[in-house]
Amino acid sequence: MKRKKSTTIFIHLFLIISVILVSFPIIYAFMVSTLNINEVYSSPPKLQFGDNMLNNYREAWQRSNMGKLLFNSAFISVVTAVGKIILSVSAAFAFVYFGDFPGKNILFILILITHMLPLPIRIVPTYQLMDNLGWLDTYYALTIPFFASATGVLLFRQFYMTVPESLLEASLIDGITPLRFLWSILIPLSKSNIVALFTIEFIWVWNQYLWPLVTTNSAQVRVVQIGLKMLIPSDAQPEWNVIMAALIIGVIPPLLVYLTLQKSLVEGFAMQQDK
Amino acid sequence: MNSKFAKKYRYLAYLLIAPSIIIVTTFLIYPSAQSLYLSFFRSTPFGNRQIFVGIENFQRLLTSPAYWNSLTRSLVFTAITVFISISSALILAVVTNKKIKGAKIYKSLLIWPFAFSFAFAGIIWGVLLHPNVGIMSYYIKLLTTLDFNWINNGTAAFTLIIIASSWRMLGYNFIFFIAALQNVSPELLEAADIDGASPVTKFWKITFPLISPITFFLLIMNTLQVFFLTFGVVDVLTQGGPARATDIVTYKLFRDAFLSMRTGYASAQSIILFVFVAIITIIQFKYAGEKVFYQ
């Protein structure tokens, strides 16, 4: 059935307004990052691009030691995302293909429980544990405690349950080991799930705030989120143009990861819904 | 796997699960149990000694107006934010799912706030609505004479963190709704078209029931995320102020644990948060059973 032309126009109008509303804050942040400080504090506020962009970005880069911040955030995000994928693929594989071994349900529940224990529920003892292990101000604290993932285990378990078991049995009879089966058959099959999980986890870790705030202090391991906060002075007029420049730089990596992997992300989710 | 193979490779199953279990017990379950333990103690002013005080921390918390303020504000804040972000994401997903030109571009442009952290979302909206430099607060004042000053005014600050968090969650919810809508069969909707169903009827009678599992799932996930992650917005913008208007539970917990070093008192707050999570989890399992989770 054909839609009326006026309806189509109305839909486009509605969507254009929505896109502007959603995107305006980002465009505005970018605009501010190109102004000089007088323009930032002028009244009425300027809604335009200035010509101080290069200066602001250079200033932001140097003042926040941005190179180091980006490296640290990227490093912990990749390591944590990959760690989560490896651990949850392995565990999900064990839960689906090895029959009913003793303790299976308990172990499964133990992993699911992570969902009930977000950081604020255990922050004081976890912090003390990091202190005792000598992990404060190290990459260890920012990565290893986050390697387990109930999300990941459930995601891959759900997917593996749809792969016919006869496939595994045939491979075993052919003399292929279970690990070989996992590596050469299952993992390639679950590629879009892996990519979806990577995207979600990368962005998640990149954007983490509370944990790096309490466990890191030195510039050596400081991440983007905290570096940006430190650009905002509590006692002086903030240089919003420089801060926005740093913010724009700091959001490019997760945005790139998202844009590159967008297709697989939606596929990975859509597939999940089928089951 | 048949039983012969299953037995032969049983050791492998344990080996594959072991790393996850070690991480979970060491960094999640053990510290959580310790939170419970610590909640019965009070640390001395220099933090060098712990005194057993029974349930005193809980008594003090639950009779403290400051804590009730935090709790109520967090719950109200979460409810409003979740409602705004889910309903607007759903409307936008349904509209962009129609066969229209440029649907892809619209979708891409609606998802991207998802790449921003709560702290970044907070900074951007804090500047947009800043009483001195913000373009939005300027025009709000010009058009309505309303002074949106989140630095001095509690209601404005509270509204600001709702707006920033809703904006951030919109992209996240939108992704899930888009994925869910791809599974609503177009034939079903066309059949309804032929029967002369209006768009509104089609939505409530066909689309919504089909995507209600994902809506419920998002409701749960959003509640937890908003409740716990808004910390970033508050820490970069208001630090709980003005006049405790944005002193949400996670921020108060952070202050008591790491600025005033009252570990016992903070741990008791952790336990109260656990009760909140437990209630949400029970609701989830009661109504949805085992569903796929995402953070």
From TrEMBL, chain A:
Keyword Ribonucleoprotein belongs to the record: no
SUPFAM superfamilies according to UniProt: MetI-like
GO biological process: transmembrane transport
Claim: Coiled coil is one of the keywords in the record: no
Localization (cell): Cell membrane
Matches recorded under Pfam families: BPD_transp_1
Cross-referenced PROSITE patterns: ABC_TM1 (PS50928)
This protein's UniProt keywords: Cell membrane, Membrane, Transmembrane, Transmembrane helix, Transport
Domain of life of the organism encoding this protein: Bacteria
GO annotation, cellular component aspect: plasma membrane
Domain ABC transmembrane type-1: 70-261
Residues spanning the membrane: 9-31, 74-99, 106-127, 139-160, 181-206, 240-261
Membrane topology: Multi-pass membrane protein
PANTHER family named among the record's database cross-references: ABC TRANSPORTER PERMEASE PROTEIN MG189-RELATED-RELATED, SN-GLYCEROL-3-PHOSPHATE TRANSPORT SYSTEM PERMEASE PROTEIN UGPE
Family, similarity comment: Belongs to the binding-protein-dependent transport system permease family.
Protein name: sn-glycerol 3-phosphate transport system permease protein
Automatic annotation (TrEMBL), chain B:
Pfam families: BPD_transp_1 (PF00528)
Keywords: Cell inner membrane, Cell membrane, Membrane, Transmembrane, Transmembrane helix, Transport
The family this protein is said to belong to: Belongs to the binding-protein-dependent transport system permease family.
Top-level taxon of origin: Bacteria
Record's keyword annotation contains Transport: yes
Membrane topology of the entry: Multi-pass membrane protein
Keyword Transport among UniProt keywords: yes
Chief location: membrane
Cellular component, GO annotation: plasma membrane
Localization in the cell: Cell inner membrane; Cell membrane
Gene Ontology biological-process annotations: transmembrane transport
Protein's recorded name: sn-glycerol-3-phosphate transport system permease protein UgpA
